């Protein structure tokens, strides 16, 4: 709850500061005179910015099941399934969250956690992960995913994305009006093509900047989940071994909506700026240096 309040208040504070800056420079009088209401735009930006991110969060479990074909195994009597479910239950009890749904899906070595709330999450592992790792390493990966759930990372990433979306929507439209009215001298009623083109271009450019910021937050969250897995396991070596094993495996391509929630990804070059996961070497080094 504190995390939610913090990010909502941060977003509101940012919008207030932007409003104050616009007032100080007198931009509000010019924009209002030309048909753009700053207060209305702020509300619009908040609704658009958080609306899409919130809807994605609420639909996350449904999308995850459909996109991966995950089979829910909580009530399965298969010995392997029973072991996976009991491992998730043990870690969930330790972490103080309700028992998540547990799933298995066909695919390369990977795992993910998702869900709108801590107490109604989904933790899933791939068949490739089970076939490629020892049981202790799989347990460490499961601990990593349960740590994501306990940390509230699904909600945190949604809030961060909402804040970034709000910035993008607000700034791109203010710049669009400025270009349309000041640079292109449009004095007609309503906006002209300059506004529309500028807004689209700014949405794209600022969207890339927002994606880089969100990805940076996601990478920090991975370090926390690695440490959380070590804490749940009672020692960090199993998680270190699991990361080392994953570093030598191809995690495959997860659905875009689930990439940030997977255990493994393989960033390289410039695309590393947009990666939701740090390099395995960096994660191992951070875990080795931790207390």
List the helices and strands and how they pair.
Blueprint: H1 2-24, H2 27-33, H3 38-58, H4 60-68, E1 71-72, H5 79-95, E2 101-105, E3 111-114, E4 122-126, H6 127-132, H7 135-150, H8 153-183, H9 193-233, H10 237-247, H11 280-289
Parallel strand pairs: 2-4
Antiparallel strand pairs: 1-2, 3-4
Helix pairs in contact: 1-8, 3-8, 5-7, 7-9, 7-10, 8-9, 10-11
Please state the overall shape, judged from the principal axes of the Cα atoms: elongated
What portion of residues is helical?
55-70%
End-to-end distance:
28 Å
Order of the strands making up the biggest sheet: 1-2-4-3
How many strand segments?
Answer: 4
The helix tally amounts to 11
Q: Structurally, how many domains make up the residues? A: 2
Supply the helix-strand structural class: mainly alpha
Q: Report the average pLDDT across residues.
A: 83
What's the quick description here?
The chain is mostly helical and 291 residues long. It has helices spanning 2-24, 27-33, 38-58, 60-68, 79-95, 127-132, 135-150, 153-183, 193-233, 237-247, 280-289; strands spanning 71-72, 101-105, 111-114, 122-126. It contains 11 helices and 4 strands.
Description:
The protein is mainly alpha-helical. The protein has 2 domains: 2-60 and 159-251 and 265-289, no CATH class; 64-150, Metalloproteases ("zincins"), catalytic domain (Zincin-like), CATH 3.30.2010.10. The protein is 66% helix and 5% strand. The protein contains 11 helices and 4 strands; from the N terminus they run H-H-H-H-E-H-E-E-E-H-H-H-H-H-H. The chain has helices at residues 2-24, 27-33, 38-58, 60-68, 79-95, 127-132, 135-150, 153-183, 193-233, 237-247, 280-289, and strands at 71-72, 101-105, 111-114, 122-126. The chain has a 4-stranded mixed β-sheet with strand order 1-2-4-3, sandwiched between helices. Strand 3 and strand 4 form a beta hairpin. Helix 8 runs antiparallel to helix 9. The protein is elongated and about 75 Å long. The model has no long low-confidence stretch (mean pLDDT 83).
């Amino acid at each position: 709850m504190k995390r939610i309040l913090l990010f909502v208040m941060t977003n509101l504070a940012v919008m207030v500061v932007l409003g104050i800056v616009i007032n100080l420079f007198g931009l509000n009088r010019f924009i209002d005179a030309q048909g753009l209401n700053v207060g209305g735009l702020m509300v619009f930006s908040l609704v658009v910015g958080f609306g899409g991110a919130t809807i994605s969060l609420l639909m996350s479990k449904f999308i995850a099941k459909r996109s991966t074909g995950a089979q829910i195994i909580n009530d399965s009597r298969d010995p392997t399934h029973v072991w996976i479910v009991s491992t998730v239950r043990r870690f969930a009890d330790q972490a103080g969250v309700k028992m998540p749904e547990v799933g298995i899906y066909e695919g390369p070595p990977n795992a993910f956690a998702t869900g709108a709330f801590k107490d109604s999450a989904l933790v899933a592992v791939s068949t490739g992960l089970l076939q490629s790792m020892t049981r202790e390493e799989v347990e460490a990966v499961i601990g990593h995913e349960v740590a994501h759930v306990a940390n509230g990372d699904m909600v945190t990433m949604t809030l961060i994305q909402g804040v970034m979306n709000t910035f993008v929507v607000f700034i791109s439209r203010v710049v669009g009006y400025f270009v349309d009215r000041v640079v292109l001298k449009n004095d007609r009623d309503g906006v002209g093509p300059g506004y529309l083109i500028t807004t689209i271009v700014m949405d794209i450019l600022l969207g890339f900047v927002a994606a880089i910021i969100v990805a940076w937050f996601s990478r920090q969250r991975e370090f926390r989940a690695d440490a959380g897995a070590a804490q749940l396991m009672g020692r960090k070596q199993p998680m270190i071994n699991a990361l080392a094993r994953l570093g030598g495996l191809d995690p495959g391509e997860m659905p875009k909506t689930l990439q940030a929630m997977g255990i493994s990804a393989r960033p390289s070059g410039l695309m590393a700026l947009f990666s939701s996961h740090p390099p395995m070497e960096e994660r191992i080094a951070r875990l080795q240096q931790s207390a």
